[in-house]
Amino acid sequence: MAQPANRRVTGVLVVLAGAAVPLWFAAARLPAYQPADTLPWWLLAAVSAAAELFVLHIQVRQEAQAISLSEVPQILGLFLVTPAQFGVGRVVGVLAICALWRRQAPIKVAVNVVLVAVESAVAVLVFHALLAVVGDDTPARWAAAFAASAAVGAVSATCITLVVALVERALDPRDLVREPAMGAATSVAVAVVGLMAVVLLEQSRWNAILALLGLAGLAIGYRAYAVLNERHLSLERLYRFSQVVSAQPEVDEVLQTILAQATEVLRALHAEVLFLPGDGQAEAVRVSVAANNRLARANCAVSGPWLAATADGEPVLITRDTRVLADREFLTAEALRDSIIVPLRGEAGLIGALMVADRVGEVRTFDAEDVRLLETVANHASTALRNGQLIDRLRYEAAHDALTGLPNRGALRRELSELLARPQPPTLAVMIMDLDGFKQVNDTLGHHCGDSLLQQVAARLLAAVPSGAYVARLGGDEFAIVVPSVAHADDVLTIGHGLLLIVAEPLPLDGLTLAVNASIGVALAPDHAGDVATLLRRADIAMYQAKSLGRGVVVFDAAASQPDSPAQLALVGELRRAIADSALQLYVQPKADANTGKVVSVEALVRWLHPEHGQIMPDEFIPIAERNGLIKGLTEVVLRKAIVAATGWARAGERLSIAVNLSPRGLLDSRLPAEVAELLTELGASPSLLTLELTESSMMIDPAGAAAMMEELHDMGVRLSIDDFGTGYSSLSSLRKLPLDEIKIDRSFVMGIEESSDDEKIVRSIVDLGTNLGLDVVAEGVENSRIWQMLRRMGCTQIQGYYLTRPIPVAEFPAWLVDYRKRDATLVTVG
Ligand code: C2E
Ligand code: CA
Ligand code: CA
């Protein structure tokens, strides 16, 4: 390998030396310029040697630029010595450093010396030729010196590019433009320093010596600083990285840290970790940071550069201009510009790979130095993740429910889509089972009993399902059972009833014995649906029917699931028009501070004034709107009217936030935050004027998506409230991580606190937990002052209910408020 390269370099050497001779010959024939002050040639040699020794590394925004100072002796030589002395001084200086100081190989010494000879010849030629044309007053001499430096910079960069290309046997033609241009530009910049030295020398030698000494001191100091600084920077980052990684026990946090640090250290936009599949698993899992800053995990096959990195254990560097076809295809497929993938090792061997991609900035792509840096990062990451159990747990947790150990909803979906994607998909049944009265168990016996109940039900289901069936927990008290290859719907009914009987057998809970009933909905593939989403939805519809009919097991029936009667269908059309015409009416109901009675905000409640049927209440038409795809339009109408009202009041000096109810489906539409933002901008409203009331169930459908959207809304400044709290299954602690401002205790509990000690306990515990979490706790359904006072003593922050007023048309609200303030004092003190 070395021999042919050397031969090629020798070739270049001969060509360069061949060029130097006629160049010098031409230079000698130019009219000689009379140097102002002659410098001994050996002093020029010494300055040349010094310049050769001190290459400056300048740190410009994370990028190190190497800057040679060779222009300084060059300019000195042009002005202060004859051309012959100039050539000799430069060559001797460089020769001394390369051969004696650096002890370079003879061929390298030869290349450097010949290069300097060519450079000096070019400098003399350009300088003297220009002086002959423009004369030799001061500005002309300076211009000639700059031109000579630029020419030398360009020539030298071209030569070096060609030599490197010859050795590496690859040449990017663009480099032949880029490198000389850069070379010329930096040469001119450094030449300024040389010119300054000349000017000083022309004044007084002592001045110049002092200035040169100062300059050298600065250069040495800067160089030492730059080297140290660079080392510190990478050490510091790596140290911080390993420190953060080893200090955090939670898997996700470790992963998040690894990814964040990998992007930071490598200056990349994107990072991913791939974990190789464990025994008995087909696919690897890739973990990355999604747009919402949460971890995203995706199953994937190991191929391309991932395979190269994990099979051979060798790092893979894919630069922006790679010519390797497979790498290009990988970049295109992943929509990346460049990337490095390095293996990730555990104690026993390779466990995966770490990738960074898309280096920041236009100019630089990743290089070998970056590969080494990423390998160091990967080593630290491996240490943090080395614990084999941790990785196993990671793989397991992604697919399983923590409480029962059953596969989770995601795993169920994957299982189903695999089954349905088979060339000959089996006829299969999906059953969704929901426990009856689970909430009461949770509320009356406590969460640990609820948990134990779910675990026992899970165990019973696993033991009772036919062989080959798949049991998953969907969340809350919902389970799913997939029965493959069912011959007839009746078989499923038999299986379903059998499961219900087994689940309903009395089970021990905290010293008590309890019987739990459940309802099952069934959907069949391919009869009812051929895709996972529809299949699950239809099983869900059947389950709700089973629950409402009290019938145990119900198989999906397309006809029965269309509950809208002809009269209701007529309403759908009218409702659609009412929404389109914004003909719905907005009513509002105030929320008041529980201690002072001061009105702090209002809730917007919609009414529909039907031309024939008169006023229709939301409980009647909201479900119709939801079933018929009208809810989005309805929400928008209400939002618009509500924001208009609140901004109107605010302009009149009455700053009250307005709360709008969001239907459960509202949180399934990822465009919601953007649409709310647009509306607020359009109406010139402050986001803090708006509160959105969400229900627990709306967050259960797609918890991750809902959480992400809530973060987005909250970041905008919109307040978020949980409506009807207590009727769902979510515990307050599960809400802790959500960006909430308020919880509203469902009126069914509030209205009972006078009579029922259970209700009183529930309300009290919600108030305690809510206020501990720093949330506003609103009690709705306050119908008299006794209830208000009870709530006030419990520490409830706000109240809402008929006692203040029934919902009133939005236009009448300001007058009501004026009137209310007059009797405010009496209201609070009563009771
Ligand atoms: P919600 O969000 O729980 O609204 C409070 C309901 O409780 C209102 O019924 C209100 O009139 C009623 N209420 C207030 N104070 C008392 C009281 O002291 N005692 C009693 N018994 N009831 C009281 P409304 O206006 O009929 O609304 C019913 C439900 O319809 C609302 O329940 C909400 O879920 C839904 N809804 C109302 N407007 C909208 C809307 O614009 N969009 C959506 N998606 N849903 C809405
Ligand atoms: Ca509400
Ligand atoms: Ca409510």
Quick recap:
The protein has about 850 residues and is of the alpha/beta class.
Task: Tell me what the structure shows.
The protein is α/β, with parallel strands linked by helices and 831 residues long. Helices cover 56% and strands 17% of the residues. The chain has 29 helices and 25 strands. Strands 16-17-19-20-21-22-23-24 form an eight-stranded mixed beta barrel, surrounded by four helices. α1 (2-28) runs parallel beside α5 and α16 (447-464) crosses α17 (489-504). The structure holds ligand C2E and calcium ion (2 copies).
Keywords for this entry:
eight-stranded mixed β-barrel, binds ligand C2E, elongated, 29 helices, alpha/beta
SSE map:
Layout: H1 2-28, H2 41-53, E1 56-60, E2 63-67, H3 71-80, H4 83-101, H5 106-134, H6 138-168, H7 175-203, H8 205-247, H9 251-266, E3 268-275, E4 284-289, E5 295-300, H10 304-311, E6 316-318, H11 325-334, E7 339-345, E8 350-359, H12 368-385, H13 388-397, H14 409-421, E9 428-435, H15 438-445, H16 447-464, E10 470-475, E11 478-483, H17 489-504, E12 507-509, E13 512-514, E14 518-525, H18 532-549, E15 553-555, H19 566-580, E16 585-593, E17 599-610, E18 614-616, H20 618-627, H21 631-651, E19 657-661, H22 672-682, E20 690-695, H23 696-701, H24 703-716, E21 719-725, H25 732-735, E22 742-745, H26 747-750, H27 757-772, E23 776-780, H28 785-794, E24 798-800, E25 808-809, H29 813-829
Parallel strand pairs: 14-15, 17-19, 19-20, 20-21, 21-22, 22-23, 23-24
Antiparallel strand pairs: 1-2, 3-4, 3-8, 4-5, 6-7, 7-8, 9-11, 9-14, 10-11, 12-13, 16-17, 16-24, 16-25, 17-18
Helix pairs in contact: 1-5, 1-6, 2-3, 2-4, 3-4, 3-7, 4-5, 5-6, 6-7, 7-8, 8-9, 8-12, 9-12, 15-16, 16-17, 22-24
Bound molecules: ligand C2E and calcium ion (2 copies).
The site of one calcium ion has 4 residues, from loops.
